[in-house]
Amino acid sequence: MPKDIAKTPNLKSEIIIHPRTYKRGHQIGSHVHAQAQFLYSISGLMNVTTPAGRFFVPPQRAVWIPTNIEHSVDVITDIEMRSVYIEPSWLKRHTNYSKLNQVYLIEVSALLRELILATHQQKASKEKINLLMTLALLELTGAEDASTFLPMPIDARAKKVAELMLGDIHSMKDFEQLSFEASTSSRTITRLFTKETKMSFREWRQRARIMNALELLENKKLSIKQVAMSLGFSSTASFAHAFKEVMGMTPTEF
Q1: Whose C-alpha in 63, 142, 204, 227 is 20 to 30 A from the C-alpha of 176?
Q2: What is the rounded CA–CA span in Å between residue 75 and residue 63?
Q3: What is the CATH number of domain 151-247?
Q4: CATH classification of 15-141 is 3.40.630.10, yes or no?
Q5: Within the chain, which residue ranges are assigned CATH 2.60.120.10?
Q6: What is d(CA 136, CA 154) in angstroms, rounded to the nearest whole number?
Q7: DSSP letters of 92-131?
Q8: Nearest to residue 54, comparing CAs of 71, 32, 30, 29?
Q9: Hey, how many other C-beta atoms are within 10 angstroms of the C-beta on 147?
Q10: Residues 49-91: pLDDT tens digits?
Q11: pTM of the entire structure?
């Protein structure tokens, strides 16, 4: 879908509060905003895609999207979404703006969650929202990066391997087979993935599978054992170990 300038509601305010509810399968095509966006869900799972890669966003995560960054959203499960749009002029007056000039995914602390929810109260005044967002952005800039981000390589050869993998996440094809289908060598792909994603291909593939596991677990159609087997893990224990490395919790805790 071509990039488009998204229409943001209530442009009279520098801070725009925008709660939405979407059903599973809903897609918001590629677009940009003239405002920065803080994107968070109270419940449900979404996938936010930017030129840098894919961000898988369960309720304990949130995405910060600066102005004019192309992105799309895929709703994986029924979702209750909370968005805050902020004019660049407000950001420059209230925060260290240089820290907020790139897309990133964060773990949402209990404090940040309550601050964002408070901005969405129906009777919140402009003064209260300004104060809440000042505190929220201070909390945001100090938050830890979340691990549910899957960076995409830029080089066409490595990108082809990544797309082959993502197109058939359950595939058991080995590294050499994928490299061959991308008309390049495994040595070249190893070098490119390390350089462009800061991850080895094995680490990248593992994270891609765990991201897919989030969707399968959230939809609750398969047991943990079935999810592990479908993604090529040798046992439930090995899947649980890999899941905890990425998510910081076991599949059962998720």
Answers
A1: 227
A2: 14
A3: 1.10.10.60
A4: no
A5: 15-141
A6: 33
A7: HHHS-GGGGSS-EEEEPPHHHHHHHHHHT-TT--HHHHHH
A8: 71
A9: 17
A10: 888 888 888 887 889 999 999 999 999 888 999 889 999 888 8
A11: 0.75
